[in-house]
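Quick one: structure tokens for this chain, please?
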Amino acid sequence: MHTVDRLIVIVLFDQVDLLDVTGPPEVFHLARREAEEAAAYEVLLAAGTPDPVVTAAGVRVLPDVTFDALAARSIDTVIVPGAVEADGGGRLRPAVDPVVVRRVRALAPRARRIASVCVGAHILAAAGLLDGKRATTHWSTAPQLAADHPAVRVDADPIFIRQGEVWTGAGISACLDLSLALIADDLGEAVALRVARHLVMYLKRPGGQSQFSVPLEQPSTTRRIEDLRHYILRHLAEPLTVGRLAGYAHISDRQLTRIFKNELGTTPHAYIESVRVERARNELESTDATLERIAAACGFGTPDTLVRAFRRRLDTTPTEYRRRFRTTPG
């Protein structure tokens, strides 16, 4: 039986981030291969003219079609990538070209759904497509998105957010997670997970998961806080009170709390919990250890404490997390 292609249109423009453009087509290509009787995908790169587009990486990309040529086509999904530019002080800010905004605003009503990747959310917002909606973008530009568009409820933490048929994704590499989520919505979790395995992705992350993991956090700027972080990792299964950490660092409890706030932007308790959750995630993904053993090894003590921490941090349970993301055979 012939299947009907779902047309995915990716918007091209000068200085666009390359991975925002090339990541989703690869994911949808694999979905087409993995889906058996489900609808397939056709991915087209669209630009204002047929001329090559120069990406931020300097790589030239040839559009498949112009926007005018899409006039007679039925569009399933429009994906809007992002771009950044340097201001006078050398700081990076999202590039929002009014011409691109107008194109996106015109395409949106003709598509079943629309999605942005990374700072592409700024283009959706400028087009008025995020008004009254919760949305995410790269953490570094989230404050600007909130300031420029007060009608948008900006949440910088999740990897992606869905609001009806409008989707927003966070950092550049999160275009893969967003694409997998779109495929799961269309074809089911089983197809999306098979695609994730082919991509050798560490895991298929839920949208509510934070953009950050503990090893990627802001690096320490002092030897004292770096020593404390290593001490926490070495003694994670043990009680780690503020008093114990302060004693190790030969400072007062108040000094310790102030150092964590200034260096890492958090409290000692919150930081320790984040490290424990990160360790527990790794155990759930790669081992068959029981929740009791994981809770003990990571310093939670009991499975109930582990569950509560997972709900706070990841909006899921350890059991559900393992079911969806384990990388070892069950």
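The chain has a mean pLDDT of 86.
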